Automatic annotation (TrEMBL):
It comes from Spirosoma arboris. SUPFAM superfamilies: IHF-like DNA-binding proteins. The keyword DNA-binding applies. This is Integration host factor subunit beta. Coiled coil: none annotated.
Length: 100
């Protein structure tokens, strides 16, 4: 499902103009990005949390040049689904679409 599909579905179910839904959805994404950028997690009940995870410094290998490269400690964004969300998804059959 793409962002366009989500916009259409919300528009149809809510009876709201697609442009208005797109504006709201884009604003939501910007708020999530800016909040995480400031180090503030976002908690949405019965859905999940957008959080930052800390990655430790590590040494990686560049196999083409056979050298060690140090990767600095950094933070990455992550989504942690709520227990209710997880239970709902676990109860559903997984449909796998294969591209030809």
């Amino acid at each position: 499902m793409t962002k366009r599909d989500i916009i259409r579905r919300i528009s149809e179910q809510g009876g709201i103009d697609e442009d208005r839904v797109r504006f709201i959805l884009e604003d939501f994404f910007e708020i999530v990005k800016s909040a995480l950028g400031e180090g503030e997690p976002i908690y949405i009940r019965k859905f999940g949390s957008f959080i930052l995870k800390q990655r430790a410094q590590k040494i990686a290998r560049n196999i083409t040049q056979n050298t060690a490269v140090t990767i600095a400690a950094h933070k990455i964004p992550a989504f942690k689904p709520s227990l209710e969300f997880t239970k709902q998804v676990r109860g559903q059959e997984i449909l796998v679409k294969r591209k030809k």
